[in-house]
C-alpha cells in the first residue's frame, strides 16, 4: 500500500503577519510525505543539494519515509521566499532559486516501481509524465499543478492529465485550466481531459470535489490561529492519498472520508511554520479533529 | 407563527456578465418576505412611492404576505443600480436613490405587534431599534447590517445588537464589526456584543454559523448558472427565519436545518434576475434541493 511522491524538498523563507522564518524545511514532497506518513508508507523522489542537513533527512526517516529516491546533487537545495498579508489565502513570491532542481531528472528506484498510489506534486508536467513511464500500473495516480504550467506548458500538462485519476488544484487554477469562470462547468471540462475526480482546494473555505456522478463539499476547520498557510495544499494531498492508500478502498464514501482527513491534516500544518506542528502531532489528535469536522458540518436530513 | 420584517422595497437596475435589467422589483424586505412565505405568514413593513405598481403588490399578496405595513408615501420608490463582473461575489453600486426611504419612520400596524419572529433587514440601526420598541417581546430577533452603518453609526448599531438574537452578515462585515481579521476570534467578539448566534454569509462558499458552544458550516449549492446574486443574502435570511418560525423549534439541530433551507432558497434566487425564479418555485423543488445539499456535504463518521 505504499505511496510514491515526486516533488520538491526545499528551504523556505517566509513572512506572515505573525512572524518570520529563514530557510526552514519546506517543499511539496516534504509536506506531502510527512502528512501521508501518519497513514501509510511513503517513497519519496526528489533532489537536494549538498547543503541539505542530516537533521532534516533523519526527521523524514524517523517518520518511516523511504529516502532511496532522494538524490543529493552538486550545488544548493531549492529555495523559496514568500510573504503573506492578512489575507492568508494568497502567497506573494519574493524569490525562487531552483538550484539543483533546475536539472533534475527523476529516477525511480527499483523498489519504488510497484508503488500502488502515486502523487505527482507540482513540477514540470513533462517530469510528471516521465515518472509515470517509470512505474508499473498504479492503482491511483493523483496530480497537482499550478498557473505557471497551465500557461507555459499546456500541451504537456494535458498529455499528463490523460493518465491522471485525481487532479488536486486550487480554485483559480481550475478556472484557468478550463477557461471557464463557473466552477461547476469548469469541473466538467476538466473531467473530460482525463481525471475521474477533480479536488478543488479553496483555502479557508475548504474543498469541493467533482466526480462524474457526484459533488462533495467540506468546509475548512475554522482555526483561531492561522500562522502560516505554506504547505497546506500538499499536506491536504498527503492526508487525502495517505488515507486512501491505507484503506485500499476507492468507493465514493471512502474518498469523501479521505478528503476530510486531508482537510484535517492541512488544518494542523497551518498552525505553525514549516513542519513544526506535524512533527508534534499524534494520530489521536487527527481522529479528534476528524470528529470535530463531522460535528461542524452535520445536519439532519428531511423526509 | 408570523414573522415581521422591516426593510426596503425597491426598483433595481442590474448588469451582470449574463444580462441587464431595468427597474425590476427588488429590496431586502421583498426578497426576505417572498422566501419566508414558502414556510409561514409574513408581515411586511416598508415604504414605497406613488410609482409602485399594483402588479408587484398583488404578487406579494398572492404569496400570503400581509401588506398592512407597506406605506405609500408621496414621491418615488427607492432605487438601486449595480453591476457585477465575473466575480459575482462583489456588487459595484452605480447609483442609489433613497427617495421615499429618506424620511421613512416605520410604524408597526397593531396586528403585527405580537409577531413572534422579527427580521430587521439592513436599514439604519436607529430605525431597527425603533421597530423593536414597537413590538411585544418576540421569540426571536434577527438582524442584518452593512459596512455603511458599521462605520457611520457604530454606537447605534451596538445598541441595537444588545437586543438581537441572531446577527446575519457577510464575512467582510464580521471582520469590520469585530475589528479582528481571524473569523473565529471575530465571531467571539460579536457574540459578546449581544447576539446568541452569528450567521456569516460567504457567497459562493456558503455559510458558517457561530454560537456559544458550536460552529456549523455548510457549503453553497454549486450552481451551473449564477445569473444575478442580488437578493441572495435576504433570500437566505427569509428561508432561514421562515423555516424556524414554521417549526417553532430553536434547538441547535433545527437551527442547522434552517441554515440549509436558507441556503437552498438563496441558490434559487441567483438563478434569475429579480424574484423571477422564486415566483415559479414550488415546495417540492425546495425539498429536492435540501436533499441534494445533504448528499453534497455528507460523509461517514469514524469510530
Looking at this protein, list some descriptive labels.
homodimer, 303 residues, alpha/beta, nine-stranded mixed sheet, four-stranded mixed sheet, globular
Describe this structure as you would to a colleague:
2 copies of one chain form a homodimer. With 303 residues, chain A is of the alpha/beta class. Helix content of chain A is 37%, strand content 25%. Chain A is built from 11 helices and 13 strands. In chain A, the strands form 2 sheets. A 9-stranded mixed β-sheet of chain A has the order 5-4-1-8-9-10-11-12-13. In chain A, helix 8 packs antiparallel against helix 9. The longest helix of chain A is centred in the C-terminal third of the chain and has 18 residues, at 252-269. The model of chain A has no long low-confidence stretch (mean pLDDT 96).
Amino acid at each position: 500500500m505504499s505511496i510514491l511522491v515526486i516533488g520538491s524538498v526545499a528551504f523556505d523563507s517566509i513572512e506572515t503577519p505573525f512572524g518570520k522564518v529563514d530557510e526552514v524545511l519546506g517543499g511539496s514532497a516534504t509536506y506531502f510525505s510527512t502528512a501521508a506518513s501518519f497513514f501509510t508508507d511513503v517513497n519519496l523522489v526528489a533532489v537536494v543539494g549538498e547543503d541539505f542537513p542530516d537533521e532534516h533527512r533523519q526527521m523524514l526517516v524517523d517518520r518511516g519515509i523511504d529516502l532511496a529516491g532522494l538524490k543529493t546533487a552538486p550545488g544548493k537545495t531549492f529555495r523559496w521566499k514568500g510573504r503573506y498579508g492578512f489575507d492568508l489565502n494568497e502567497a506573494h513570491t519574493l524569490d525562487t532559486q531552483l538550484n539543483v532542481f533546475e536539472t533534475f531528472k527523476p529516477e525511480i528506484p527499483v523498489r519504488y516501481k510497484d508503488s500502488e498510489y502515486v502523487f505527482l506534486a507540482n513540477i514540470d508536467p513533462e517530469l510528471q509524465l516521465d515518472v509515470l513511464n517509470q512505474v508499473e500500473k498504479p492503482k491511483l495516480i493523483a496530480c497537482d499543478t499550478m498557473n505557471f504550467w497551465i500557461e507555459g506548458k499546456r500541451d504537456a500538462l494535458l498529455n499528463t492529465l490523460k493518465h491522471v485519476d485525481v487532479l488536486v488544484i486550487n480554485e483559480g487554477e481550475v478556472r484557468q485550466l478550463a477557461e471557464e469562470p463557473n466552477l461547476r462547468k469548469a469541473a466538467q471540462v476538466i473531467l473530460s481531459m482525463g481525471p475521474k475526480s477533480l479536488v478543488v482546494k479553496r483555502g479557508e473555505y475548504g474543498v469541493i470535489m467533482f466526480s462524474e456522478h457526484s459533488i462533495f463539499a467540506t468546509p475548512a476547520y475554522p482555526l483561531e490561529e492561522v500562522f502560516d498557510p505554506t504547505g497546506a495544499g500538499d499536506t491536504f494531498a498527503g492526508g487525502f492519498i495517505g488515507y486512501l492508500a491505507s484503506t485500499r478502498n476507492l468507493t465514493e464514501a471512502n474518498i469523501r472520508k479521505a478528503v476530510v482527513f486531508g482537510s484535517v491534516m492541512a488544518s494542523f500544518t497551518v498552525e505553525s511554520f514549516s513542519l513544526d506542528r506535524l512533527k508534534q502531532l499524534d494520530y489521536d489528535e487527527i481522529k479528534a479533529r476528524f470528529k470535530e469536522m463531522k460535528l461542524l458540518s452535520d445536519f439532519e436530513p428531511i423526509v
